[in-house]
Design brief:
36% of the residues lie in helices and 16% in strands. It is built from 10 helices and 8 strands. It has a 6-stranded mixed sheet, sandwiched between helices. Strands 6-7 form a two-stranded antiparallel sheet. The model has no long low-confidence stretch (mean pLDDT 95). The structure holds flavin mononucleotide and iron/sulfur cluster (SF4) (2 copies).
Length: 273
């Protein structure tokens, strides 16, 4: 049995879980090839999926769905009926539309989706002052990844002939979800900026930007291309890039989610079969 794990990860949480899942598969005797499609240049290469009996796709939840550029990339694939599994990392808030909408894309691309999972990951907006899942993923999350790998393997081999069952229905239309995606700059992060600060011009923010939105020399960000993933902010060695102070929106966000910081951080991941 040979499996591919394909992951998009702007700030490392999803990649961390992918490494854990890869190790778990390998312990179960599965050969695993890992692919990272975060960089624009990697999404422009073709991945030959023909040698694999199962493909695992891992994404962060961005405004209730997989990141826009990852969704666009999925639409370039052809599954030929191959089995696929999904997993997401998320920052403590709404996650269920991501399972449903990504399964729909994969089904339309002729994959058969057999499982999905969500794992807590430090919320990217903690970079601006939120405090959601500051220490995740952690050991219990890694233990759940073990169960996910085993259940997914059973479905890839056919020992368990099931496919991914009913999921919570999103109460949001596609247009509403597109609206949330556009609004995050206005309400939460604003565009990343150096705010006039000098830097060593290492170019990492431009080279590693998943969408080609960052111009390292001018420090300007193209608002039409930027997906607010904050890879540039997280990875700047000089720590000169920043976003809006997100703390004023933190209490409102907890209120909207009808939760407290303490309860939020107790959340556990979930497997869907
Ligand atoms: C633009 C953006 C939107 C996000 N939207 C959500 C969301 O709707 N629900 C949620 O729980 N977390 C959300 N998050 C948090 C991420 O899903 C979480 O931090 C994830 O683990 C990041 O993964 P990565 O480190 O692999 O990039 C969002 C993060 C970003 C950058
Ligand atoms: S990553 Fe930071 S130091 Fe490097 S070019 Fe970008 S802003 Fe400058
Ligand atoms: S410029 Fe935008 S898309 Fe590029 S790394 Fe920064 S936040 Fe992500």
């Amino acid at each position: 049995m040979k499996v591919a794990i394909i992951v998009f990860s702007a700030t490392g949480n999803t990649a961390r879980m992918a490494r854990e899942i890869k190790t778990n598969f390998e312990t179960l005797g599965v050969a695993v090839d890992g692919y990272d499609i975060t960089a624009l240049s990697d999404r422009q290469k073709t991945i030959d999926i023909s040698p694999y009996q199962g493909i695992v796709f891992g994404f962060p939840v961005h405004s209730l769905r997989a990141p826009r550029v990852a969704r666009e990339w999925l639409r370039t694939l052809t599954g030929h009926g191959k089995k696929a599994a999904l997993f997401f990392t998320y920052g403590g808030f709404t996650v269920h539309p991501a399972h449903q909408s990504t399964r729909q894309i994969l089904t339309e691309q002729n994959f058969s989706v057999v499982s999905s999972a969500e794992f807590p990951g430090a919320h990217t907006f903690n970079l601006g002052g939120w405090r959601a899942f500051p220490d995740r993923p952690n050991e219990p999350d890694f233990n759940l990844a073990q169960d996910y790998a085993q259940a997914t393997l059973n479905r890839f081999t056919g020992e368990d002939p099931g496919i991914l069952g009913d999921l919570d229905h999103s109460i949001y239309s596609g247009e509403q979800l597109d609206g949330f995606e556009r609004l995050r700059f206005k309400i939460v992060t604003q565009l990343p900026t150096r705010a006039g600060r000098e830097c060593s011009l290492c170019m990492a923010c431009e080279d590693e930007c998943p969408t080609g939105a960052m111009d390292a020399v001018t420090g300007e960000v193209d608002s039409h291309k930027c997906i607010a993933c904050l890879a540039c902010v997280a990875n700047c060695p000089d720590q000169v890039l920043s976003i809006n102070d997100t703390t004023p929106f933190w209490a409102f966000k907890l209120d909207m989610g009808k939760t407290t910081e303490q309860d939020l951080n107790l959340q556990q991941g979930k497997i869907y079969l």
